[in-house]
Amino acid sequence: MKKRMYTKIHSLSFKTVLLSSLITLGGCLGTPPSTTLIESANAAENAKSKGSTELTPRHSFEYKIINSMLKRYHYKKFELNDEFSGKILDQYIDQLDPSKVYFTQADINSFNVHRDKFDDYINDGNTEVAVNIFKKYQQRISERSKYAVARIEQPFSLDKDDQYLLDRKDANWEVSETGLNKLWEKRITNAYINEILTDTKPAEAVKKLKKRYVNMTKRTSQIKPNELFQTIVNAYAGAVEPHTSYLSPRSSEQFDINMSLSLSGIGAVLRTEEDHTKIVSVVPGGPADLTGQISAGDSIIGVGQKNVESIKDIVGWRLSDVVNIIRGEKGSTVVLSVLPSATGLSGTPKTVKIVRDKIKLEHQAASKRIIELDRPSGKVKVGVIDLPSFYIDFKARNRGDKDYAGTTRDVKKLLLELNKEGIDDLIIDLRGNGGGSLSEVVSLTGLFIDKGPVVQINDTTGRTDVLKDEDSGTIYDGPMAVLIDKGSASASEIFAGAIQDYQRGIIIGETTFGKGTVQTVLPLESYTRKTFDKPLGQIKITSAQFFRINGESTQHKGVIPDLSWDLPQVEGDFGERAYKNALPWRRISIAQHKDFERAFSPMVLQRVKEQSLARISKNPKFRTTVERVKLLVDAGNETTTSLNLAKRKAKRALFNKQLLSLENKLQVANGLPIYKTIKEMRDAQEKQNDDIFTKKPVDVFLNEAAHILTDLQELNISAAAKQQ
Fold it and tell me: 151 phi and psi, to 5 degrees?
């Protein structure tokens, strides 16, 4: 049985990526701040009210720390000079107004006065200009809000042939307020038409949009100092490289939760609808579920601690603020005021007391299923492990918790269960898996190979280390495939690349995202001797680039599958290729390794490709699914839309008719009842999407991947028999 490698691999990855930084990092930060500075910073920080845009001396000091860390320890060596200063300004403006609907060209001209000065501001820890730009942004938001609220009350002329530009990233800035008003006239008209096309009555559409435009100003005014500081710093970090970012204390907490898949709370997934916080899903067996009084669709309108008297009205709050007060220590009590979905927002609220407990977010953890195929040779069992991310609860593991969340330990358990259930083949589904822990992907790969290199890491010093699976033996050595798509990135690409380089299995799907860099998360507080009352954030810094064992980077190019389908694509670049300042693709030396002894031969692989194409050409369900994808992609590729209501209605009616027809074909193919109307279809799909804890049916791509893998196994066995 294969031994665990967590400690060894985790230590090695941190050694290659972090150790030199940790040893020398304190020296790059300069002299610690004086007691007077710290006291004034703490006092200023504590004096800030909600929604203030004024930053403090603490933020200035933190800015300098981040600057030193980026310049000295980022993998991409850059010079913070006048030229780079302009990139930071462009990045900041793009963060605030990416669609160019708030600022005018005159605003941009006034900002450009500082175009070659941001390097000096950063070196001095000066955020004043960035804050002033944000204040101008708030002012423009307020002006647009007032204009929109007034305009929405006026009649619309919906019989003209005007067009509205949907994709404005390459548009010019409007030269004046008059130009902005004309743009917003079209923008508001388009929003109104969208509401009418969803069968909203005109009066209700006006009421709904008016509330939306009023809330524009409210949401912007609720920005807190730490959030504004995060936006400012990330203009700098994003100009360096797209995967480098600053995490405020609240964002750092969310990052830790995402990596560990657990939190202390009530066990419910929430989202904002209008001004209300809606319960989307309830975690089975979680604290909310165990009360028997909380259901998906309910709305939370008040939150308190311990008792009913402490309940605060939270209607209109941002979701992040609601989540923050619902979370708390394990064993503590939170009190909710809830409007049941059955009675709606006009019903009578009920009070529910919930004792917080540790929640494992199972929908993000590894899970298994078995697909049974009817083949000419008989029934075949294909095991599937769905892996949404490469996660690990570092804190729980370091504490010695036996049941800490970790990708490798969870997948190992699932593999042993699938082996007992007698699977013939295995698929690892990495579609949409954006990556995660580097140590986890190395140890996970070790479950499928005997031993050897998994990934090469090239760090900021130019040194290349090879992370290896040192243990002999495997947990699963049968036929396997890895299913990928363009959402598979980073750690997913390491795993898929290693399986492909060892010829351990077949890679099926779409070319991956193309992220070939390693990020290290460093808490700023560790390097400031905890001199501030308020917690500091963290810097997620690109500290290395990883390379496949064949010497190629996945950067830009991604992992190209052995077998793919010709699917419709959204126009334009996607993934790493879409970032202007991403690291380039390159190659290093090959890491010596031994190919899998029972690798699929090229001849067999070519034969399987032909069989797959023949099979899907005769599969109505597959063809219908591709037609549906094409219909949606074609709609998404449109860059302009008509502001003529009659034309939009005709186009929408045709689209809905086509979509409903395709969806009903799939319903019939799955043995399910057809939808009578497009609304019935959308309501049903929304309910399915919300219910994230319910296992979704096997899609056509996963099903075809199972057939492909079975084809490979059967042809391989046949080829081996002929050679004997």
Answer: -70, -35
Could you give the CA distance from residue 434 to residue 175 in angstroms, rounded to a whole number? 40
Ranges of each domain in the chain = 31-73+77-240, 262-360, 362-596, 600-724
Residue 580 φ/ψ, nearest 5 degrees = -70, -30
Strands 378-386 and 425-429: parallel
d(CA 172, CA 5): 54
The DSSP symbol for 313 reads: E
Strand partners, 540: 245, 521
Catalytic residue among 13, 437, 490, 612: 490
Give the count of beta carbons closer than 10 Å to the beta carbon of residue 328. 16
Tally Cβ neighbours within 10 Å of residue 343. 12
Catalytic residue among 8, 360, 468, 515: 515
Question: If residue 447 lies in a helix (H) or strand (E), which one and from where to where?
Answer: none
To the query of whether residue 256 is one of the catalytic residues in this protein, the response is: no
User: What are the pLDDT digits (tens) for 130-163?
Assistant: 999 999 999 999 999 999 999 999 999 999 889 9
Identify whether 501 is a catalytic site residue: yes
* Residue 230: how many other CB atoms lie within 10 Å: 20
DSSP annotation string for 610-621: HHHHHHHHT-HH
- Per residue in 303-326, pLDDT (tens digit) is 999 888 888 888 877 777 888 888
Q: Could you tell me the pLDDT band of residue 176, with boundaries at 50, 70 and 90?
A: very high
pLDDT at residue 10 in the model: 27
DSSP structural state of residue 576: G
| Distance of alpha carbon 457 from alpha carbon 178, whole angstroms | 54
Distance between CA atoms of 431 and 444, rounded to whole angstroms? 17
Structure token pair of residue 110: 């006034």
Q: Are 489 and 513 in contact (CB under 8 A)?
A: yes
Gap between the Cα atoms of 279 and 337, Å rounded? 12
CB-CB contact of 253 with 538 (8 Å): no
- Contact of 386 with 369, CB cutoff 8 Å: yes
Q: pTM of the entire structure?
A: 0.79
CA–CA distance, 373 with 381 (Å, rounded to integer): 7
Percent of all residues in the chain with a pLDDT value above 90, rounded to a whole number: 52
With vertex at residue 489, the alpha carbon angle to CA 484 and CA 490, rounded to the nearest 5 degrees, is: 130
The residue type at 579:
Y
At the topology level, CATH places domain 262-360 in Pdz3 Domain (2.30.42)
Please name the helix (run of DSSP H) or strand (run of DSSP E) that holds residue 468, with its range, or none.
strand 464-469
Closest-CA residue to 460 (of 197, 718, 134, 77): 77
Among the options 386, 425, 501, 711, which is catalytic?
501
Q: CB within 8 A of 351, min separation 6: which ones? A: 308, 311, 335, 336, 337, 338
Beta bridge partners of 517: 545
Q: Give the closest residue to 192 by CA, choosing from 700, 524, 645.
A: 645
Rounded-to-integer distance, Cα 435 and Cα 414, Å: 20
Joined together, the tokens standing for residue 446 give 């070790």
Contact 368, 384 (CB under 8 A): yes
Alpha helices in 306-437, H assignment, sequence order: 319-326, 394-399, 407-420
Residue 295 among the catalytic residues: no
Task: Quote the distance between the C-alpha of residue 115 and its chain's center.
Answer: 32
Length of the chain measured in residues: 724
Token output for 525: 């507080």
Domain 362-596 superfamily per CATH: 2-enoyl-CoA Hydratase; Chain A, domain 1 (3.90.226.10)
Q: How far apart are the first and last CA of the chain?
A: 31
